[in-house]
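Residues determine shape. Take a concrete instance:
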Amino acid sequence: MIPFAFWLACGLSSALSCRVALQYFQLESYQFGGYFRTLQRNWLRAFLPGFAVALWGCAAVTLCASLAFADWTLWMGLAITLAGAVAAWVLQRRLPAKKPLVFTARVKRLCLWLLAVCLGASAALAFGGRLLTACLLLPALAPLLLAAAALAALPLEKFVQHLYLRDAMKRLDAMPDLIKIGITGSYGKTSAKFMLEAILSEKYRVLVTPGSFNTSMGVTRVVRERLCPDHQVFVAEMGARHMGDIRLLCKLVRPRYGMLTSIGPQHLETFRSQENICREKFELARAIPENGAMVFADDGGLCAQLYERAACPKHLSGEHAAGLGLSARDIEVGPWGSRFVLTDGKESVTCQTRVLGAHNISNLLLACTMGWLLGMDLPSIARGAARVRPVEHRLEILPSGGGVTVIDDAFNANPVGAKAALEILREFPGRRVVVTPGFVELGAQEEAFQYALGEQIAQCADVAVLVGKRHTAPIAQGLRSKGFAEENLHVISDLAQSAQFIRPGDVVLYENDLPDNYQE
């Protein structure tokens, strides 16, 4: 019975040591590459629960065995070991997390695989006569056991995903009159999506993917759970962190229309090169049929180059709107929002909105252009534009006590958006404060972008509060290179500590907020 008890106790203890690792795996969208990079960055937090459980188990078994040479003492030691593992699970659950582990159906299945792998490894050691090795080694290797369980579960998960995708495709195919629009880009996708929803809702019943639901499984879930027969337009945000993501989304949605908001260095860590990013985003243009159209942002750079390459019906949206009879003039932006005159060459209308930033004008023009292509008149487009509101955590002005003005730009910051946010901050009166941990997922260029961010902050802010000493070191260097006052530069370890540097009358820009898998 003793080997069986060791097998059971060590296997359960190993599985219970994996809660933090499970959270990291979910945050990395169940991708092995990102998961192992997260383990490398956060090895102490990931492995510490398992090491603690292993040491606790060894101490408990050794102590109980020293009391008397009897089976009941070993049983007591194993019981204490399991109690320690349960306590470790509870403590991991109570760790502060910006996005806690969600026990989705996939996570529940993974937990069963994890239990099977842990029990299997424990049994192999226990019945092989290596009882102490099983007790000491397995919990300490819990994050690696999770990876093995995920690998074992991969064929089943692929099969389940295939079934869900086929069902979503059937539901879309059953609505041949549904106008399907795909939106992609390195950044600006979510903002452009909700702008488009506000405009098209003036004429159509519209379903958009909520929040940042932009993966194949996220879009599949929206189609299966929210698409109704009376919907006339379906707008799918199409995100990508790996080559092939956009192609899979296009296979699922089969969009008739498409929008490209931007091309930039987002997710360089996984794409490896700007060329790969361009190639991936261009998959949407390849999927547009002859009876549809693709609208590209006129950025004067990579988007415009992809516009030239596209073989599908296409339009370039921007201030001068090359290739389309819809353009904008007299553009004004400020702390109050933005305003411009929209014209099709025959008729003009003034559009005004509360969204902030010149880069959001580009997104709004894309949405206006798409509404125009779908038969909307200019007054209807202007009414829709007036209903556009800032997306949560994207240049959103929040009410705050004590006379402090808060500009919340905490979600998924990027170099272009951060620069625009800083330019907006510069327009506000009063003492200007920036709180930021910088950028992530920019690969080998990340340090250079961080340095440039520091230079930009120095030109637009009076106080800089950097979250995370190691990651923000290049930002501090950029600030100092522009002669930023050292007494106004503060480096903190936790966002909550920023409150001590804010006083009444300040304007505070929160630029990015890193997820748990990027915390120092």
